């Protein structure tokens, strides 16, 4: 990659916004992931009785199993949201920068 | 090329097979063998087609960058759901219920980590493997030696675990001899990878993933059908018949007796994925960061869906297998222990279940898919190993960038043959060893050596070669020593009485330690090289964010 292309991108008025927005998005999503995942593991490890309880009086399924399934779904949902935001906000911005530079 | 493939399959199947079957007393499963032969025929055809498209090193390692996000998502799912993880998680649920669920969730949470921290930037910065990314602004030689050491160790551990687990499984499923099973796997893998490179490997993964997803779905539907589609009725039955009773639904002893160990395991599972060389390599087969994103969403959806099927299969096996004493070694009075007497061990729970609910046809299908899975995963590992040897060690360390494309390709092909023979030998050597710890150790090394170096080198300006290399090696050594000195190896493999390390999973110590070491040895690095590397961060960021100047954007 030539130096002047790097300079051009760095000087592009929208580049800073792109980097800042993306960094913030991945940090927010990563933190959410950690909170959900660590919350799940810590609850399991230190409050196992909460997870051992059945979901209701007529249920065999425990709170832990149900929460586990929801946590599993949340991983996919978080990824889907990230892809949605990237497509909607960051891709147009990126396309603009690439078009101006090349 | 066509003749070679034909010869290979003919030799494998027609000549050697009857002899090997005759040696074991087991009845061979005809349905399984026919379905597996169909799979081989189909994938050999693909390999022949892929071989004509595999001319350059880029074709060989990245399928020319022409795989779509959806296809790559399926292929990643194929790579990730190995026979060990499918049968292993179903078996763990069968033995201890909820505990198996924890593993599956840990494996799944590797994917948000990959997506939010590495996937897109990885695609924009690298060519063939993740070492291209860590070496982007750092010094080639030391960084690639680190990446190759960790990657080859991970691949070796994974390969041994797959070969040994697979060999034993195939003995049970197909009634053939262990050594013969290991040779078939190694030989098929060599044919796919040697001739078809990444294109053939990817399509083998895609076919296998589709077969596995449909087989798992069918099995789960049949299980739920037995309980009028009420999962809770299935769980109620499982709790009634299992020796753990209601404990089956709770985290259990394994977690509560040592919460730190559970936390540590959780960390290694979630961060290990983002450091597995054969998984990261798949991101270079797509054309852009956008397609890389699509790969992750498809991969995680398929993997998440498949793990949910695995829970149904595991709990279903508890509820249904006890009704069929023929799946157990029974005592003279017909009694059996559902955990210790299952024929072939608890990892066979899913396989027996397919026989129980779908008869020999479904059993044959699942057995064939399992065999296909093993071959496909081994092929993916071998390709990543060959990339480490030819692209990192040979082209960039030994030849210091002066090698030609042709030489690199030749070394790749030799590496594939060596890795194939090596995996067969390792499979035979480790036949009677306890290999259960190996996948866990592979994840721990990936999370403690590759992951911190990769993340910090692309997202922290201050990261220098000295920091990355020292930190990465510290993570690698601490994770390995920890596992070796803990119960899993020190007691269970070496037979010592007491472990030296209190709990077996290193993640909670080794991962933060690697990050801290990279940070410390980077900020104290006052060399001119370190200043150049910090200054090069802007160019790295421009490329990682925009993809301008990235390689392999189009298929040819």
From TrEMBL, chain A:
Transmembrane stretches, start-end: 27-47, 59-85
Entry keyword annotation includes Transmembrane: yes
InterPro entries named in the record: DUF485, Inner_membrane_assoc
Source organism superkingdom: Bacteria
Cellular component terms (Gene Ontology): plasma membrane
Keyword set, alphabetical order: Membrane, Transmembrane, Transmembrane helix
Entry protein name: DUF485 domain-containing protein
Native source organism of the sequence: Halopseudomonas formosensis
TrEMBL record, chain B:
Regions crossing the membrane: 32-51, 72-95, 101-119, 145-164, 170-194, 206-227, 262-284, 296-322, 361-390, 411-430, 436-456, 468-485, 505-524
Signal peptide residues on this chain, from the entry's feature table: 1-22
Single GO molecular function: symporter activity
Subcellular location: Cell inner membrane
Pfam family, one: SSF
Gene Ontology cellular component list: plasma membrane
Keywords of this entry: Cell inner membrane, Cell membrane, Ion transport, Membrane, Signal, Sodium, Sodium transport, Symport, Transmembrane, Transmembrane helix, Transport
PROSITE patterns, alphabetized: NA_SOLUT_SYMP_1, NA_SOLUT_SYMP_3
GO BP, sorted A to Z: plasma membrane acetate transport; sodium ion transport
Membrane topology: Multi-pass membrane protein
Chief subcellular location: membrane
PANTHER family linked: CATION_ACETATE SYMPORTER ACTP, SODIUM/PROLINE SYMPORTER-RELATED
Family, per entry: Belongs to the sodium:solute symporter (SSF) (TC 2.A.21) family.
Descriptive protein name: Cation/acetate symporter ActP
Source organism per UniProt: Halopseudomonas formosensis
Top-level taxonomy: Bacteria, Pseudomonadati, Pseudomonadota, Gammaproteobacteria, Pseudomonadales
